[in-house]
Amino acid sequence: MRIVIKGAGDIASGIALRLRHCGFDIIMTELAFPTSIRRTVCFSEAVFHGKATVEDEQAILCTPHNVESALNEGKIAVLVDPNCNCVDTLKPDALVDARLMKRNVDTKITDAPFVVGVGPGYTAGKDCHAVVETQRGHRLGRVIWKGSAEANTGIPGSIAGFSVERLLRSPCNGIFTPVKCIGDEVNKGDVAATVNGVPMICLIGGTLRGLLPDGTEVFEGMKSGDVDPRCQREHCFTASDKALAVAGGVLEAILCQNQK
Fold first, then answer.
1. Which of 14, 66, 209, 226 makes a 20 to 30 Å CA pair with 89?
2. Angle between helical axes of 241-259 and 10-21 (0-180°, round to 10)
3. Cα–Cα distance measured from residue 175 to residue 62, given in angstroms and rounded to the nearest whole number
4. CATH 2.40.50.100 spans which residues of the chain?
5. Strand-pair partners of 201
6. What is the dotted CATH code of the domain comprising 164-229?
7. For 49, how many CA atoms within 13 A lie in the half-sphere containing its CB?
8. CA separation (Å) from 48 to 29, 31, 32, 90, 248?
9. pLDDT digits over 45-73, tens only?
10. Smallest Cα–Cα separation from 134: which of 119, 124, 156?
11. CB burial class (10 A; 0-12, 13-18, 19+) of residue 9?
12. CATH class given for the domain over 2-152+241-259
């Protein structure tokens, strides 16, 4: 079974990882310049480096001409295809919109035989066949066959009692320059990066779980890093609990649809 996933960030990559473990052929579409924060667990890194490995699965940057070759080798194919034009030629059995844009920009229920919307912005039965909840809490990862996911609150889910404090945001417009690396332990007040020389300061202590790459053009307030207060360095290099929970919902939706 062939599945196209829109997006290759950390949640999309968790979905790809779990579906690939179950034997599905996976094609992921991305922007020409991805801005994934948790780069060590994102297949979007293939856009920059030609390939990317997350846990035990590898993705290869492809053109439309060598997608089949990558799939035959058991790899995940990553395409620079922001408009997901590949669905016309690849004709997937299912399409998953996992870009987490908080609204539906261009996904239609007719894009594939089965369409899944991940997170808020999609309505099951209208612009997709099923929606998977992404809000942390009791309903995380649940499949919604009628209606929508919980609305975006703009407030990150709490981890170890910290929410908005976990996020690192650009202090101004400019070019991003990391000072720390993903996996580094940081303290409150540490400088994780600079933007045009202006420091981006950690609001809490923990492990630096995500950080934009050097040279990224950013705007003031743009999410540019993530501190995990649990201080488990290995968490920086494996798919998160949230990503795998959402992935489980996507897998459930696809398998249930196949039984209908």
1. 14
2. 50
3. 28
4. 164-229
5. 191
6. 2.40.50.100
7. 13
8. 14, 11, 9, 23, 28
9. 999 999 999 999 999 999 999 999 999 99
10. 119
11. buried
12. alpha beta
